[in-house]
Structures are given as C-alpha cells and as structure tokens.
Amino acid sequence: MAGDRKDGEEGLLETYGLPLWFYPVFILVIILFGVCTELDPDYATETVTKVGDLYVRATGGAKYDGADYSMYMDASAMCVLGFGMLYTFSKYYVWGGVGLNFFICGFSFIWVTVAKTIVNAMWAGEWARTKLNLVEMTTGCYVTAALLISFGAIYGFTSPTQILLLCIIEPFMMLINEHIVLYDIHVKDAGGSLVVHAFGAYFGIAVAIGMGVKAKQLPAEHRTTTYFSDMGAMIGSVVLWMFWPSFNGATFASDPNLQGRIVLNTYLAIASSCATSFATSALAHRGKFEMIEIQNSTLAGGVMIGMICPFHLDPWIPVLIGGLAGMISSIGYAKYHPFLEGLGITDSAAVQMLHGLPGVLGGVCAAFACLHGDYGYLYSYQTDWEDSSVTSRTRGQQFGYVGLAIVCTLGISIVSGLITGVLMQQPCCPRVHKKDMLVDHDFWHIHDHGSDPRAKNNGRVMANPMQDTQA
User: Fold this and answer.
1) φ, ψ for residue 38 (rounded to 5)?
2) pTM for the complete prediction?
3) Mean per-residue pLDDT for 329-351?
4) Measured between alpha carbons, how far is 83 from 239 in angstroms, rounded to an integer?
5) Distance CA 199, CA 328 (A)
6) Closest CA to 288 of 278, 276, 300, 273
7) What is the DSSP letter of 132?
8) Which of 6, 80, 169, 373 lies 20 to 30 Å (CA to CA) from residue 72?
9) What does R_g of the chain's alpha carbons equal in angstroms?
10) What is the per-residue pLDDT for 226?
11) Interatomic CA distance for residues 413 and 350, integer angstroms
12) Residue 429 φ then ψ, to 5°
C-alpha cells in the first residue's frame, strides 16, 4: 500500500478492499446465522400473564444464576483486552495490533457459531441448529483465541482484507481438527493445549510461509518497540495471566468440583511459569530481564497445563509443569526464535514460543500422565465419563492416541495454513508492501506523523512516536 494515500493514486480494490469484501460476506453471515442457530429453549420458554394491573413474565426454563456469564466474561476479556493489549508492543503498529484484534473478535464471535453448526452436521450426518446460550458464547471464545494466536504470527504484514479471509477459513479447519481429536481419536483437551494453542500457532506460521513473507523482509526499524508500547503489552500479559484459570475451566460449569480442580491446577502452573520466566530471562541476558520474554513466557504454564489440568494431580506436578514451561519458553524467545528467523521463518509475535511449543509439550505431558497407575488417565479420554466404553483402552493405548492427536493437530494446522496463506496472496486480496509493514498509517487516520517511520522532519526520520512533532 502507498505511504500517504491520495485520491486516484490506487485502485478501487486497494483503497476499499475491506468494505468490498466485508459487506457481501456479512450478508451471507446473516443468512447463514438464521439458518444455523436458534435460541436455547431455556432462554425462550416464557409466558406473560396479566395479574391485576400488572403484566408478569414467567420462565419455564432453567434458572439463570450468572455463573456461566462470569466465565464467559473472563474468556472474552482474554480475547478482547488481553490479546489486544499484548499486541501493542510494536513501535509503529500499536493501533493495528489492538484494533485489528478487536475486529477479529467482533467478526469471529458471530462466524464461529455458523462454522460450528456446519462442522457438527458433517460429523453427525444430519442438520441441527446450534442452540445459542452462554456456554456456546464461551466456546466461541476458544475458536476466536486460535484466530488471535494466528494473527500474532502474521502481525503487521497483512491487510484487513487478508485478515477477513483468515477469519473465514481458520474456524472451519480448527473445528475439523477439534472434532477429529475429540470424537474420532477420543482425546480430551480441556484447556486447548493442542486444539487451540498449538493449532493457532502453527496455522499462523504456515500462513506466513504460504504468503511467502520471510522474516528478513520486515523492515528492522519497524520491528522495534518503545518503553510505552512495551508497557501497553505488559498490561495485556497481566490481564491474560489473571483470567487464564477461567479460560481453561470455563466449559465445566456443570461440574463445579472438576472445574475447581482445573482452576487450581492452572493457577499453580501459571504462577510457577511467571517465577521461572523472570529467572531464566535474567540468566539468558546477563542478569537483565528481556521484556518480550516477561510479556509472554510468564503465561506459558497456562498453555502447557491445559490438556492435563482436569487430571487428579499432586500439587507439585502442575508447579513443575508450569516452571518448565516458563524456562522453555524464555529460552525459546532468547535463542530458538532468532535461529528460526535466520532460516526465514516468519513469526512476528513469536507465538510459537508461547503457544506452539508449550501446547505440544502439554500434549506430551498428558500422554505420559496416561501411563500413571490410577484412574487419572481416563480424563484424557472423557472428562464426564458418560460413555461406558471409556474404560476400554489401556493406559498404553491412550498414550499412543494422545501422540496421534499431536501429529493430527500439527498436520492439519500446517497444511491448511499453507493453503490459506497462498489464497491470501491472490490478486483479489490487497497486500501490504515491504516498506509499509508494521506501520499503522496505511489503514488508520493518524494525525501524529511522528508515529510514521517514513515521515521526514528536516530530512531526518522521526524515530520516536512519542516525540513532539512541533519541537
């Protein structure tokens, strides 16, 4: 995209790419939403009777106690506020990080319900509308989280139109993988270590590869951060850290005891990863903390414990898992991520180090937990144990099936991500030119030209977005 847009300088598609794509898609979404959804009967069963001069409404459904809404609020706060603020780290892409994150949430919260209905019908062999309730709203946050993780991998070099295409395709692929893992392989993933975090990370990285964007193409100056942008991202990290236990346990409101154990295990793991991240960062950087590691690695325990969090564990186990997650993630940011970028693999927000590796390792932890000698391994098969066939597998067999779930998730995410990346580079999608990557000004009206690294001031590039342009 051109630096400073002027009327007539660009084609219709480049100038109005998002609205040209969005409005036809949104009309289709409304139609499909009407076909695919209906209100939950508990929310729709009501009578209105006249008592004297008053009209009294009575409901015949289940009593609403607010617990589901509380969990939904925590999960949606992670998506909108947590991820949104976390993506404000880039010096010249603060608005793009938080703003496009907000756009993804708004569209995805609606679209994932349509995608879920279609994928459910594919597996069931018959059409059934999704009953909308607070639990469905919460599960929609899980799919949205996978999208936001993928956005982190392609952060700064995708146009809003390309992001819209990502939002249309990825929920289908994520839900297909989830159905295979949960209902065909029969491996449960309560906190989404594999089906949310690992899938989202490797899908996003594969999209970047499919788009043909290499790390060295991103202008080095545009990739820098400031004291203030990093502070904004740190706020996002704190929000995510606070609400992560709710995210892992949000869909278990029907079993308060199990939900409590999930929350406790997650709390212990994420607290441990917070502590070890600081120590490991100081070790890797000659006694000083590296902000990107503190923003992200502190959260890795919540990812790595996700698949195993329903298990009946001694308290020291989630502390150990979380501590290892923090250390592995910090070392990944310090050493492994620069190595991958040297190979040309693009991952703008290094989501592999927070979501990808800890997610896969969470699956590995669950596989080895299946070998333990008590009934705990059954939680990797069915968390509610309604299926009488739950005991038909041995611990060794379930170990192998968890391994198969890991391979399946990596395979589907990478292959579908590559195809999506190729589609996003087609002429029908406006692209971002190299010189415009990680710069807000192409897609936002910003009056502070000091936040545009391409703007000149007496022949000098304005390097500090906080600088007074009148000085």
Assistant:
1) -155, 160
2) 0.89
3) 90
4) 9
5) 19
6) 278
7) E
8) 169
9) 23
10) 85
11) 17
12) -110, 120
